[in-house]
Amino acid sequence: MTSPRFSVIVPTRARLPQLRRCLTALAAQTVARDDFEVVIVNDGSPPLPDVELDAFRERLTIRSIHQEWGGPASARNTGIREAHGAFLAFTDDDCAPTPQWLATLDEALRATPNALVGGHVRNALDDNVFSEASQLLIDFLYDRFDSAATRGPRFFTSNNFAGATASFREIGGFDTTFRLPAGEDRDLTDRWQAAGWPHVYAREALVQHHHVMSFRSYTRQHLNYGRGAWTFHQARARRQTGVRETESPGFYAALLGYPLQRGRTRRPVVQVALLAWSQGANALGYFLEKLRS
Fold it and tell me: Where's the Glycosyltransferase 2-like domain (predicted)?
């Protein structure tokens, strides 16, 4: 049997409706079915019902792997180990890639086979101010790192990037000391860059993110981001790949001004307040993790 060009790795944990929507989107990809497989890694939740996966098997080549809970970094590493494809594409169970997603990633990788290619993520929940704020922060960071005036490592979120399987395996996949969904993608991106391989931003590789959030879950997310930032800085210090980064006051001024730019959001004042709150939660999470460590 010929190996597929891509393995699409989808970690999941007790979110069957979201996974169903993700698989529906993957079944609508414009690339040929035989060109990719979907590797679902069930991270410690009850086994996925066969009837749910069987509904997609006529349109997708699916493999489902169960593991004891280890966190998203561990789940993605399981997918990396089990993948048959020459290239890996990552998304999450609460994401719905648009039909051209995989074809766009493939085009970029054909041009630069050793690149880590990151796509664009869009908040699909326009009426959820917390989901919007969470995505605005990512959009700000992408825009800032994409600026010619900014020096420093680019990062891609792990719900929308792709690269050669051999490269992921060579750098050891994701660092499983990141137990939370926070910082593990930033760390992998940093190690990819340290290996001397390029990063390519393919904005047209679009994923719709259906991340339902409340004030509580938004706060917890950014506390976790702070905890992940501490873990990342410690890992980077061990690798001696750079000193700990400290953002300038100008960074925070630009962040809080971001929602005020034309067309960014319908609720600029609310979003400025939520972004400010996120940075306070991030700082608290950072110092709590530092104390814990």
Answer: 7-140
